[in-house]
Design brief:
With 196 residues, this protein is of the alpha/beta class. Helix content is 34%, strand content 9%. The protein is built from 6 helices and 6 strands; from the N terminus they run αβαβαβαβαβαβ. A 6-stranded parallel beta sheet has the order 1-2-3-4-5-6, with no helix packed on it. α4 runs parallel beside α5 and α5 runs parallel beside α6. It is globular. The protein starts with 7 loop residues before the first helix and ends in a 5-residue tail after the last strand.
């Protein structure tokens, strides 16, 4: 639990300590004993970022811009082994997601969970499609703002997808679903509960 102090710098330091010491998905010695290398699975799901507040933060509650930039920079140097990125319920927004995915090994990411990140729009999906071309699993449950346009971007740029969860993405219609089906030849699982 992060203490809520008035100093945003102290709050962010506490969050980084939480992520990089108590999160079992961070391998302190690295997979090849290289310090600071992120292991295969990086899980920030449900992480409470509400104690962190700075001028660069896009929202008062959630994964803010400055935090996304910092995590993205860390992944740029230590994320070559990262294959699973879980941001479920992290309240990340489009700009934050863009910053997170700027790291140079994002094309190696195979599993991305953005479920219940309700602020993600087609702009965020465009960033995913551009940077994460190797995706095999994409979870978008309850991403209420995405539309057929964003799903088409994903279908066009991520042809290796095997599993896509569009549960309760009510703005996604048959057009977006058809683009996934026709472009992703390896598709094994498509969850559509609550779509148009």
């Amino acid at each position: 639990e992060i203490s809520h102090s008035n100093s945003s710098k102290n709050d962010w330091t506490a969050m980084k300590d939480k992520i990089f010491t108590s999160n079992s998905s961070i391998n302190q010695g690295g997979l090849d004993n290289t310090p600071g290398v992120v292991s295969e699975d990086f899980d920030l799901s449900g992480t409470d970022f509400s104690g962190i507040d700075s001028p660069r933060t896009m929202r008062r509650n959630g994964l803010g811009i400055s935090q996304c930039r910092s995590i993205g920079r860390g992944l740029h140097f230590g994320g070559r082994c990262l294959r699973v990125l879980n941001l479920r319920e992290s309240r990340v927004e489009d700009k934050g997601l863009e910053l997170l995915l700027k790291y140079r090994f994002a094309n190696l990411l195979q599993h991305l969970d953005l479920s219940r990140c309700e602020e993600i729009t087609d702009r965020g999906l465009s960033a995913v499609a551009t940077r994460c071309v190797g995706l095999r699993v994409l979870a978008l449950e309850c991403c209420f703002s995405i539309t057929d346009l964003g799903v088409k971007h994903i279908a066009k740029r991520c042809p290796n997808l095997m599993s896509v969860d569009l549960t309760r993405c009510a703005k996604v219609s048959d057009v977006g679903i058809q683009s996934i089906i026709s472009s992703c030849e390896n598709l094994e699982k498509l969850i559509l509960s609550g779509c148009k």
